[in-house]
Amino acid sequence: LAKTTQPISMDSYEGQEVNITCSHNNIATNDYITWYQQFPSQGPRFIIQGYKTKVTNEVASLFIPADRKSSTLSLPRVSLSDTAVYYCLVAPAYSGAGSYQLTFGKGTKLSVIP
Amino acid sequence: KAGVTQTPRYLIKTRGQQVTLSCSPISGHRSVSWYQQTPGQGLQFLFEYFSETQRNKGNFPGRFSGRQFSNSRSEMNVSTLELGDSALYLCASSWAGTSDTQYFGPGTRLTVL
Q1: What are phi and psi of B46, to 5 degrees?
Q2: Quick check: B101 contacting A, CB < 8 Å?
Q3: Mean pLDDT of the residues in chain B
Q4: Residue B91's CB: how many other CB atoms inside 10 A?
Q5: Interface touch A100/B56, C-beta < 8 Å
């Protein structure tokens, strides 16, 4: 079971790059890493997903080292609207081999300061 | 396209009662997962249904159950409610499952008195 650990909170000024790291020491071979953003009173929203190395989309980058025991979500030039809670999720692609566990981190509350 | 919808949005029950929550996934999605979110425990996985079959289950007591219908709509039931069941219950739908991009609904806020 890949337990995940994230910082509880982070502060950043507008316009800065923010990096949030998630540790998942027991990640399994077929586990994927997904990051979600959640605003108050809303459900989480998908940001980015990766398996290894680096993935980039229009809103973020995800860095995964070769051992895959951690992952770092990078948000370029944050704005006030990026103030939210960010979760990493480690979950395997379903293999048909029976039940599996998936683990959300406790979330990192990012506060962007003007 | 329409997003994931959950009904009701808010619910107040008393201890010992039972409750049924409903989730309508995005059209075409066959996987529906349920999560419980509380300030102390964060987001915890309850179970996943795919094509009407429970494919995966988290570590919750048997009082928590669910089902999925042929149109992929899903219901979650909690029997013999306890105070600790007060939480935001979220459902998420996806094409392939929990490792795929999940689209979350707004949640049902359950308060147990």
Answers
A1: -95, -65
A2: yes
A3: 94
A4: 31
A5: yes
Separation of alpha carbons B63 and B46, rounded Å: 11
For A5-18, the pLDDT digits (tens) are 999 999 999 999 99
- pLDDT surpasses 60 at A97: no
CB–CB contact A46 B103 (8 Å): yes
**Mean pLDDT for the stretch of residues A97-106:** 71
Cβ-Cβ contacts under 8 Å, A109 against chain B: none
Strands (E), B1-113: 5-7, 10-13, 19-24, 31-38, 42-50, 53-57, 64-68, 74-78, 87-94, 103-104, 108-112
Chain A nearest-CA residue for B98: A91
A1: pLDDT strictly greater than 60 = no
Q: What is the mean pLDDT of residues B84-105?
A: 92
Q: Is A73 exposed, middle or buried (0-12, 13-18, 19+ CB in 10 A)?
A: buried
Amino acid type, A21: T
Q: Report the percentage of chain A scoring pLDDT > 90.
A: 71
* Nearest-CB residue to B101 (from A49, A102, A103): A49
Report CB contact under 8 Å: A94, B106. no
Using omega within 30 degrees of 0 as the cis cutoff, is the peptide bond preceding B106 cis?
Answer: no
Please provide the size of chain B in residues.
Answer: 113
Dmax (CA) of chain A:
49
